[in-house]
Specification:
18 helices; seven-stranded mixed sheet; 449 residues; Rossmann fold; 2 domains; alpha/beta; Transcription Elongation Factor S-II, Chain A
Amino acid sequence: MMAADQIVHGVPPSLSAKVVGSFAYLTVRDRLPTILTKVIDTIHRNKNKFFEEYGEEGIQAEKQTISLLSKMRNELQTDKPVLALTDRLQDTDSWNQYLQRQQSLHGDPESVSWFKSSWLYVECYMYRRIQEALWLNPPISDYDVFNEGKTQSFFESQQAVMALCTHLEGVNKNMEEFSKNQLFEHFNKLLQVSLWGNKCDLSISAGQDNSQKTSPIDSLDSLRPFILVDDSNMVWSTLMSIQRPGQPEKTPAGRVDIVLDNAGFELVTDLILADFLVSSGLVREVHFHGKSIPWFVSDVTAHDFQWTIRQTMAANHKWMSKSGVQWQRYVKEGMWSYHDHPFWTLPQEFCDMAADAPDLYETLKEADLVLFKGDLNYRKLTGDREWDHTVGFDTALRGFGPAPLCSLRTLKANVQVGLQPGQGEKLTSQDPDWMTCGKYAVIQFCNPK
C-alpha cells in the first residue's frame, strides 16, 4: 500500500511547521504547548477527585500521567523525533506502522520530528499521546481531560440552544403545509445553522470560552457573504433524488451520515438539522459518526452525544426539553444511531480510508449523502496540502468518494480548494488571515459517481 505522504506527481506537499512563520508553525510552536499545559493543569486540579475515588493509587496515576505529558511537551518544544506508542490498544499498531512508513519515506528517523513532519500528523499524534499517558496509568485511564470545557460550552450556549429549539418547533408545527420550495428554504437555513455552529471550536481557541451567546438564525443573512463556496443546491438535489423507484409517495427513504466535529453548541446544531431531515420525511435515518477517544479538545465522543441529548431533555424550557425527548425517541427507534471507528482518530487522510479502513468505507457507501463537519475533516478530505485555491474539490479528494459528500466548514487552517480564479488573491488582499480566522466558511459538495 502506498504511504499517505508518498510523493505523487501533481500532489503538493503537506502543510508543515518546518515553514517558519506559517500557521502550521505557529500552531505547533504556540497553540499545541498551550493545550498540553491546560491538560496538565486539569489533571492536577482533579487530584483530590482521583484520591477520593481511588485512594493513593489515584494520586500516583495523576503524578505519572503529568510526568509523561510534561515529557511530551518538552519533546514538542525542542523538536525531538516522534516516538512509537507503547500502549497496547486496538490502534497502536496502525499508529506505529504509520510512523515507520514516514521514517522510511524520509530515510531518517530523526527527520520525522514535531516541526519537520506534516502538521496534520503531529497534531493528531499529540492527542493520541495524551490518551497514551492516561491509558498507561490506570485507574484514571478513562478520564476525559476535555470534558469540563465541552460541558461548559454547552451550558454557556443555552440561550442560543433555546432559540434554535423554539425555531425548530415552529417549523415542525407547519411541516405538513410546506411546498417543496418552502421545505428547501427551511433546509437551507438549518444547513447554514449547522455550518456556523462550527465556529465553536475549543481546539482553535486553545480551550478559551467560545460558546454561542445568540441564535445564529437571526444572523444568517449577515453571514451569507462570508460563505465562499455555496453548493447547497446540489446538496438539496441529492436529497430530492433519494426517493427510490417504486417507493410509495410520502414514505421516507434514504440515509444521511453526519461525520461530527465539536461537542457543545455545534453538536446541537447538527442534531437540529438531523431532526429536520427525519421529521420532514426527507430521509428515513441519520447515522452520526464521532470519535472513540477524546480528541482535538472539543470533538464529540459517544458520551458527549448521549449526555447532550439527556441535558436537552432535562432543560427547564418547553421546546428545548421537547426536542430532547424527540431525539431520544429517534435513537430508541433506530432512526438515529451513533457510531465511532478507530480510523477517525488516526493521522491518515481520507483518501487512505478504502485501503486502511475498508469496513468504514463500505459503511459510508451505504449513505445517500455524507456531511463532513468542520476543519479537521476538511483537512483530512484534502490531505492538508499546499493546494492551489482553484484546484477542484474532487481533485483534492484524490479518489475518496464513498457517496455524495459535502463539507460544512468554517476556515481555521490554511488549506482551501475549489475557489474561483482570483478569489483567493482578493481575499488575501482584503483580509490576510481569511484562511485561519474562522470568519469564512464553505458548503462544498462533490458527487463521485
